[in-house]
Fold this sequence. Notes:
Blueprint: H1 2-17, E1 23-30, E2 33-40, E3 47-57, E4 68-75, E5 81-88, E6 94-97, E7 100-102, E8 106-116, E9 119-129, H2 132-169
Antiparallel strand pairs: 1-2, 2-3, 3-6, 3-7, 4-5, 4-8, 5-6, 8-9
Helix pairs in contact: 1-2
Amino acid sequence: MKKLLCLALLLLLGATAAQAAETPWLDQTTGPFRVIATVAPTPLTTGPATMNIVLTDAASGAVRPVSAVRLITKSHEFGRDQTYVTVPDQAQTSYTSERLYFASSGTWDVTVQIFDGAQTYTTSATLEVGSSTSRILSAAKITVPVTLGALAVFAVGWKLWQRRLRQGRA
Length: 170
């Protein structure tokens, strides 16, 4: 029985871990920049998240480093701004959020501010943040029927094996 419970738990964790890839959610042009932002985990739920922003030249498509990129998030539910500074990678080709955190589910406004010398460019979009509970429930919709099916097959096999053992002794 312990093995079956462990298997069910592994299936549940595997279903939720498989959804941890990044998803593009923003692809807009502001000033001379094309802003492409991805967010992980997918689907986005309450709690910590990572956002990567890639800035390219809107005309040529070449990666264009800037002095800073800032993220401002605001929940429709709470209405309070949270500001995050992004950290560039070694080649300054992408910027990653530090400690991005979505405290509640629902709709969030996300503003990307790009600082390029004396100029500041801004673009905004909204994100839908689901609850952690709904993520677990969506994984359970797949895992529970599969686990119950496996248990049914096991039970039938066990009964057949027991019947064979009794017939062999008689």
